[in-house]
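Hey, can you fold this one?
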Amino acid sequence: MSNNTKIEEDAIDKAISKFESFALKHLKEILTIAPPVIGLSIFLSYFVKQGFYPSFDILQFSSLLIFAFVIGVLLILSIALALAVPGYIYKSILLSHEKTQKKLKLHFIKPDESEDKAQMFFVYRIFIFYPVLLCGLLNWLAAYRFHDHYTPIFLTTPLFISLIFCAISSYKLEFQASSVFALFFTLAVATFMSNFSIITIFLATKESILNIDGEFAQLATVIIGTLFVSLVISVSCIAVLGGIRYLLYACVAFSFVILFYGGVLTSFPSKFVNMLSLGNYTATSLMLTKDFCEIKNFPIEINDKCELTDAYIIWSMGDYTLARVESKAGGTYRFQIQNKYIRAIVRKNSKSDEAKNK
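Sure. Predicted structure:
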C-alpha cells in the first residue's frame, strides 16, 4: 500500500471519527434542536419563494416542523439506501468468500506499479462499473423505445449482463467455481437493484427533467444522469471494501448531491405544503360568505354563487388565507382574506372533489 493511500485513508478515518464523536457527545442537543430548525427552514424556504409570512408563529406547531424534518430525512435516506444496496450485496455475497476477498483487496488496495493499477481498474470496470452502466442504459432504452415490453426487459437484462461479465471476469481472474457462482449471483442482484435505484432517482427528479426545454435536452439529461448515477453506485460498491460505515456515509452524501442538483430538495417545501393541503394548489372553488360578497370595491369578479373559481391557494393555515386569482378583466390579483369569510375550499383531485370546511 502506498504512503499516499495510507494518508488518504487516515484522513478519512479521522474525519469520520471526529464527526461521530461530536455527534455522540452532543446527541441530545442535536436531537432537540435539529428537527424543528430544519423543519422551520423547509417552511421558510416556501414562504420566501412565495413572498409572505403567515399571520401566526409557526414555531408553536412543533409537531408540524418535526414532521417536515422526518419526511425530508426519509427522502434523503431512501435515495441513499437505493445507492447503498448494490454495494451491500457485493459485501455480503461476493466478499464473503475468503479467497475472492483476498484477490479483490489485492487489486484494489495494493497497487503501486502501473501494471497493478491497470489490473485494479480492469477489475473495477468489469466487476462493477460496466455492468451497472450497461444495465442502466438498456433500462433507459427499454423505457424510451420498448415501453410495451419494459417489464420482461427490466427483469431479464441483469441476468444476461451478469452472465457476460461473469464469464469475462472469471476467465481473466481465474476464479474457482464457487466464486464464479457467487460473482454471477452478486452481479445479477446488484445490477437489478442498481436499475431499481436509477429508476427511483429519476422518478424523484422527473419534474425537474420535464421542465427542461426540448426533447433532445431531456434525453441528454437522462443519459448523463444515468452515467452519473451508475458511477455513484459503482463508487459505493468500492467504498464497501472499507466497511459498511464508509458505504453509508458515501451514499448519504451522494444522495444529498443528487437530490439537490436534481431539484428535488429545492422543490420539496412546495410539495410538502401541497401534500398537507396547506397551500400550493388550485382550488376549483373558493366559497365565500354573503357578508364578503356584499363588498362592492373588491376588484375580482365573484359569481352569483358567491365563489371564486380556479383560485390558487398559497397558504390557508391560520387566521388568513392567501390566494391568487386571474381576473377576467385582465391581470392577476393576489389577496389575503380572513378565514371567517370562507365557507369552504373545494379542491379537485384524481378521485373526487374535496371540500375543506373552514
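The two ends are 69 Å apart (CA to CA). Let me know if you want another pass with a different chain boundary.
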